[in-house]
Structures are given as structure tokens and as C-alpha cells.
Design a protein that fits this description.
There is one protein chain. This protein has 5 helices and no strands. It is an all-alpha fold. It has one domain. Helix 1 (3-18) packs antiparallel against helix 3, helix 3 runs antiparallel to helix 4 and helix 4 packs antiparallel against helix 5 (92-112). The radius of gyration is 16 Å and the shape is globular. The relative contact order is 0.18.
Length: 123
């Protein structure tokens, strides 16, 4: 599967697997669902690295990874602030809804992003 399609599928899977968290109340069910959603995270990180490596010249690869990591940290910080506020007002289900929404946005961005280009990562 091309990295772009894999990234889109993993983000969509994260979104779909996270939906039950917006209404589940049983701790065991929440734990099992969180474990399943956690399986998508390493896949997304790897595919983001593969797509970065394939889309930039080798001379700026370190800089590209730095920008990607910085953007990821900024996005995580922003999402944590929003989720914290939502949890304060609407409880845990609202916080999980923020995560599901973020995964949906990630899926849309991955689907609409730059097409996979033949490069070092695809050889």
C-alpha cells in the first residue's frame, strides 16, 4: 500500500476506533478501546517519517524531520489545551470527542495531501 493511502487508512481507523470512547462508561471497555486505538499511533508516526523522507531532498532531511516533530508537538499541545477545556465542561466523553475529531482531520489532510512521489522510501 502506498504510504499516503496507508496514512489515510490508519488515521481513519484511529477515528473510527475512537468513536466508542465518546459514549462508553465501563472501565474495561474503555481500556480495551484505548489499547486498540493505540495500535494506530506507531503506524501513523512511521508513515509520516516515510512520506517526509520521500518528499524532501536528502540535504534538508534533518530539517524536514525537525519541522515535522515541531508541528507534531505544537499540535499535541494545542489539542491537549482544547481537550482539557472540553473535559472540564463536558466530561471525559467530550475529551475523547476532541481526539476523534483530530483523527478525522488527520485523515482528511492525509487523503488530500501531496501525492506519494517515487523516492528513496519507495525503492
Amino acid at each position: 500500500m502506498p504510504p499516503r493511502r496507508g496514512q489515510t487508512a490508519a488515521a481513519a481507523g484511529l477515528c473510527l476506533l475512537g468513536l466508542p470512547l465518546t459514549f462508553l462508561d465501563a472501565p474495561l471497555a474503555i481500556g480495551a478501546t484505548l489499547a486498540l486505538t493505540g495500535l494506530a499511533v506507531p503506524v501513523l508516526l512511521i508513515l509520516a517519517s516515510v512520506r517526509t523522507e520521500a518528499s524532501v531532498p536528502r540535504a534538508v532531511l534533518t530539517q524536514a524531520f525537525t519541522w515535522g516533530n515541531s508541528a507534531s508537538a505544537a499540535g499535541s499541545a494545542g489539542a491537549a489545551a482544547v481537550a482539557g477545556r472540553v473535559v472540564d465542561t463536558g466530561g471525559a466523553h467530550g475529551g475523547f470527542a476532541v481526539a476523534v475529531g483530530a483523527a478525522a482531520v488527520m485523515a482528511v489532510l492525509a487523503a488530500g495531501g501531496r501525492r506519494d512521489m517515487p523516492g528513496r522510501a519507495s525503492r
